[in-house]
Amino acid sequence: MFLDNKNIILLSTGSFNPPTNMHLRMFEIARDHLNRLGHTICGGLISPTHDSYKKKDLAPSSHRCAMIEQALVALPWVKMSDWEVKQNGWTRTRQVLQYHQNHLNMIITSRLDDAIKVDTSLFPFQFIDNINVNDSNQNRAVNVRLLCGADLLESFAVPGLWSDDDIEAIVRDYGLVVVSRSGSNPHKFIYESNILTKYMANIIVVTEWITNEVSSTKVRRALSRNESVKFLISELVESYIKEHGLYETLNNKYSTNDILDLNLKSAFLSPSPSNKALKKFQIDEKKLNIDEPDNLPCTEKRVINCEKTKVRNVVESKENFTRVAIQVSESGIIEVISDIETMV
């Protein structure tokens, strides 16, 4: 079965623990690519997995949904669906796709029959408004496609993780949009799978040329170590994480042990005079003339300054003696030469 429907809703599933900028960028990359192929992207959906999904360090779905909402502030054409997390247990991806496709079909039908009332909050208002009752059934139809990374595609080969029936139903009835990552080869993987090869016309591979290896696992590790995650996740998401102490984060970015004690004297630093120890700093009473162009020869007005170097002076303290020399070269350029001698 070839999915020739040009109207597409992109659906991404996963733990989003936490949602990263790469999760959001996948939607943008896919939309650009599909638009070039002549498809119309009607919107996007993110469906976080249920709490019963067995994964290490999985934050509660209430927090993950809240973080996704914060992240999507920057991506208004994508919505968060909490249907999956509200189920009694973990739901297979095939069922998640089926629910959202059925719900989408009901929305389209409700536009034709005002008597049917359907919750349309899952989909962007622009998508709802653009459903034209005068269009043919084919033009009104919208296909929910699974948006995923190459790692999810390759997980189809993990023994016991996916059933062959589910894989075939997903690719046959909904289709895939796969965003490749550095080091992955989706085309080779499709070739090596009989099911994927059978329905390869329903698989669109999008190459991410600007490689980005951001992962939720690495973000969690950085957060637990009080390391910066700036530009890896949304600032709103980062604030939420630290406010609720997720992923072993602390309220303070740096612990007191990490702060440099400025009162300690370092053996690698030479002491310098403080403001209180600064007694005087004067230049030769004869003013230096630097207004004339440097390419002119010395004039009588500048002879005094060009004859010799003017060294005058001096910063002193009880323990430190610092000599600062100011000289004027023949070209009229002021040079500062420091000769620091320390006497304790």
Provide a quick synopsis of the model.
The chain has 344 residues and is an alpha/beta fold. It has helices at residues 21-36, 61-71, 93-112, 125-129, 137-140, 150-154, 164-173, 186-192, 194-198, 216-224, 235-243, 300-307; strands at 7-14, 40-48, 78-80, 143-149, 176-179, 203-206, 313-316, 320-328, 334-342.
Describe the structure.
The protein is α/β, with parallel strands linked by helices. It contains 12 helices and 9 strands. The chain has helices at residues 21-36, 61-71, 93-112, 125-129, 137-140, 150-154, 164-173, 186-192, 194-198, 216-224, 235-243, 300-307; strands at 7-14, 40-48, 78-80, 143-149, 176-179, 203-206, 313-316, 320-328, 334-342. The strands form 2 sheets. A 6-stranded parallel sheet has the order 3-2-1-4-5-6, sandwiched between helices. Strands 7-8-9 form a 3-stranded antiparallel sheet, with no helix packed on it. A hairpin with a 5-residue loop joins strand 8 (320-328) and strand 9. Helix 2 packs antiparallel against helix 11 (235-243). Residues 254-262, 264-268, 275-281, 306-326 and 338-344 have low confidence and may be disordered.
